[in-house]
Amino acid sequence: MLKHNLGYPRIGIQRELKKACEAYWSNKIDSDALFDVGKKIRKENWKTQEKANLNLIPCNDFSFYDHVLDMSLLLGVVSESYLSIPLIQNNIDLYFSMARGFQKNGWDIKAMEMTKWFNTNYHYIVPEFEKNQKFSIFSKKIFDELEESKNVLKSIKKIKPVLIGPLSYLFLGKEKEKSFHRMDLIENLIPIYIKIINKLKNEGVNWIQLDEPILALDMSEKEKKVFKYAYGEISRFCSGINILLTSYFDGISENIFLFQEISIQALHIDLVEDSNQLEKILSFFSRDSKMILSLGLIDGRNIWKNNYANSIKKIEKAMESVGEDRIMIAPNCSLLHVPIDIEYENSIHIDIKNKMSFAKQKIYELNDLEKIIKGNKNILLSNSSLLEKSSSIFHDIKIKERAMKITDQDIQRENHFYIRQKKQKKKFHLPLFPTTTIGSFPQTKEIRSLRNKFRKKELSKEEYDEKIKNFIVEVIKEQEKIDLDVLVHGEFERTDMVEYFSDKLKGILSTDNGWVQSYGSRCVKPPVIYGDVARVGDMTVKWICFAQSKTKKLMKGMLTGPVTILQWSFVRDDQPIYHTAYQIAWAIREEVLSLEKSGIQIIQIDEPALREGLPLKKKNWKSYFDWSIQAFRLSSSGVKDETQIHTHMCYSEFNDILQHIADMDADVITIETSRSRMELLKAFSVFSYPNEIGPGVYDIHSPRIPTVEEIFDLIEKASRKLPIKNIWVNPDCGLKTRKWKEVLMSLHNMTKAAKMARLKLV
Questions:
Q1: Which of 71, 103, 154, 411 is the most exposed place for a label (fewest CB within 10 A)?
Q2: At a CB cut-off of 8 Å and minimum separation 6, what does 759 contact?
Q3: CA-to-CA distance for 401 and 583, rounded, in angstroms?
């Protein structure tokens, strides 16, 4: 029974990669120093996994920005616009220009589009394909890292290079022209995959991992046909190397028949997200005398210890069906989505910490499972005893009972939107194309230092509060200079849009060092929802009311919605997820009503994670939307008609869920559309989205500054698809990660473009 891992976190235990990348981008270190940091992280990762006695250790799972972008560079899927920049002298600068855009010495090239990786909070860079796309081996990264791993690990037999599979790679991309389908490129692509695989084989590699998460989706007939062709070709021309094809994030039992006519050595299935698929998969494997089955047993997306008793049942069932020599065990997906090491956490209550497991601990759990199979029942008994241990910190019966008592009145606004809109327009007197931002402003080194001093008790609460107030006053002045119509307070008191609320809600905790990569150098610390959730007092009212007192303009109250707090946290696994969602929704509702009572007239309840929480298979969508939309409406529906509720959603494909977005009944929704050049709005216009909408006109994930003309062009495109009276003008997302100079110039251009639109488009 082989033990292996699909991928390991790549940011470093102290976020070394983030710091190195940002230092490189600001010209504080050179590329050699950046590469040294990457090399050190890779070495530590390989050594950690080797010490855990894994039989197969992933290679090429490291990335300086994004593994999908790495794949594009490997396959030569690079737009001529980036290749034509004469100032770019090496692949790493080409790579970063694709991810972040390039604006220097008269050159101004936008970053590539970015979107969510399946139903996770990880963002990837979307490959862009031309009709006659040519592929080639452009980057040597995978081969360089293979050589590097040979010098670190004791045996090349342990090294397992990882690649995104050809079908999933094409699926994750987009066509730059309308006259073809990207799946039609498979015949051009497969020969390059075959070259890569055979080159790895010639380097001595015994196993290679091809990730095909597309198998967990509702695949089209075209995609199924392309899959059979792709792996039929790989089977024919890649002999002498073991191919492990992995799927994750859901079950693949509906697509298992695709493996009847292809020859691969092993298939990995996700038994965390869909344990019910095992029986059907085993039925297929029992008819095949050769293929190995890899069981994804350890949860790579949550931080709770594995239930060994449940895992052992699955292993024994599989062994009984196909034999021990045809079984592998692993986490269900890459450990990219969890923090690195629980031992770096020193402030978590021991009863909670004892139930937690980060990436390092998860790979050791595979060892425990192997030992139990070999007869060590003490490990099993110890695990069962620990997981069954209860505590008053986990459960509050009053919160549980209240969360489920939801009436129709609790989730309905007083009147329909068209009535509310008339009242709000009469009350606010905003111009056409009103301008605002999504909430946060730059979190500078000075602000982070201030927060750190307060945590270390080097500043009193009074001193800290006074300094935060000074930042708020300054950001209000800047917004007034720019002439934004609806202001925000800047969120300087908040570390993160979810972590901030977790620190103020009962039943949720923040970690000291539980960092996870969101995109590029952006790392977040997802809170841990360990118990029943409740609000214990005002969370934002003091800061929002102070900000409103410093301006005559409208000030937005900024909150994070219940579904996003849920999706961007590590959630308890001992009760249905919707129970937890309703608990959070009641807490946010109380805060909304407190803001309204304090005189705040516009309140934004962000739900950027609503779409990413959607199950991958459509058959499971209804149950998800039933509770998620109800949770949002529970949080937002207690206010008067005149109080305007905004929400924000991140990069998503909205076409299939527009009715559900409309069902949220927010007065204004803001979405990220600038990188797609307003393509996402097509769905909203066809659907005739009834409420107001702010399509993002400024890409905040890139340092480049958009011009007035290009922002005006985006507003004009939006005005062709949406009623002018319903359009807001705003950036794609919050401005926390950006620098002040670029933010002020970009927002100045944005308000200037909005004023131009009021003159030219009305």
A1: 154
A2: none
A3: 10
Tell me which amino acid residue 70 is. D
196 near 209, Cβ under 8 Å? no
Question: Distance between CA 214 and CA 647 in Å, rounded?
Answer: 30
Instruction: Please say whether the beta carbons of 138 and 74 come within 8 A.
Output: yes
The pLDDT tens digits of the residues spanning 129-150 come to 999 999 999 999 999 999 999 9
Confidence of residue 290 (pLDDT cuts 50, 70, 90): confident
Which residues, 6 or more positions from 19, have their beta carbon under 8 angstroms from its beta carbon? none
Catalytic (active-site) positions: 701
Pairing relation of β-strands 692-695 and 102-104?
unpaired
Q: Tens digits of per-residue pLDDT, 206-241?
A: 999 999 999 999 999 999 999 999 999 999 999 999
Question: Element (H or E) spanning 422, and its range?
Answer: helix 417-428
pLDDT confidence of residue 461? 93
What residues contact residue 342 under an 8 Å CB cut-off, 6+ apart?
Answer: 303, 353, 356, 357, 358, 360, 361
Q: How confident is the model at residue 260 (pLDDT cuts 50, 70, 90)?
A: confident
Cβ contact 125:112 at 8 Å:
yes
Continuous segment of H or E residues that includes residue 242 = strand 242-246
Query: Side by side, which strands form the sheet with 554-560?
Result: 486-487, 554-560, 602-606, 644-649, 668-671, 692-695
Q: Rounded to an integer, what distance in angstroms lies between the CA atom of residue 461 and that of residue 459?
A: 7
Tell me the chain's radius of gyration from C-alpha atoms.
26
Contact 722, 686 (CB under 8 A): no
Residue whose C-alpha is closest to residue 627's, from 643, 641, 615, 645: 615
* Exposure class string for 406-434: b at 16+ Cβ within 10 A, else e: beeeebebeeebeebbeebeeeeebebbb
- pLDDT digits over 42-57, tens only? 999 999 999 999 999 9
Q: Are 241 and 209 in contact (CB under 8 A)?
A: no
**pTM beyond cutoff 0.85:** yes
- Look-up: residue for tokens 């344990």? 275
Q: How many residues does the chain have?
A: 762
Task: For the beta carbon of residue 440, count every other beta carbon within 10 angstroms.
Answer: 22
Match 């046909």 to its residue by tokens: 225
Closest by CA position to 74, among listed 136, 121, 10: 136
Place of tokens 């000074």: 470
Please, are residues 165 and 210 in contact by the beta-carbon 8 Å criterion?
Answer: yes
Q: Which CA distances in Å does 526 have to 419, 438, 497, 570?
A: 39, 20, 10, 6
Could you give the CA distance from residue 547 to residue 541 in angstroms, rounded to a whole number?
10
Integer Cα distance of 586 and 535 in angstroms: 8
Q: How confident is the model at residue 289 (pLDDT cuts 50, 70, 90)?
A: low
User: 378-407: per-residue pLDDT in tens?
Assistant: 999 999 999 988 778 999 999 999 998 999
Structure-token match 């925000």, residue found: 488
- At 557, list the tokens: 């109250």
327-331 and 692-695: which strand pairing?
unpaired
Question: Distance between CA atoms of 568 and 525, rounded to whole angstroms?
Answer: 9
Strand 114-116 relative to strand 123-125, pairing: antiparallel
Structure tokens at 469: 């107030």
Sign of CA dihedral 93, 98, 102, 108: positive
Within 8 A by CB and 6+ apart from 137, the residues are 74, 75, 76, 192, 195, 196, 199
Which H/E stretch holds residue 59?
strand 57-59
SS3 708: helix
- Look-up: residue for tokens 């207690």? 638
Rounded CA-CA distance 7/45 in Å is: 10
**Cβ density class 157-190: b for 16+ within 10 Å, e for less:** ebbbbbbbbbbbbbbbbebeeeeeebbebbeebb
What are the tokens at 106?
Answer: 């008269």
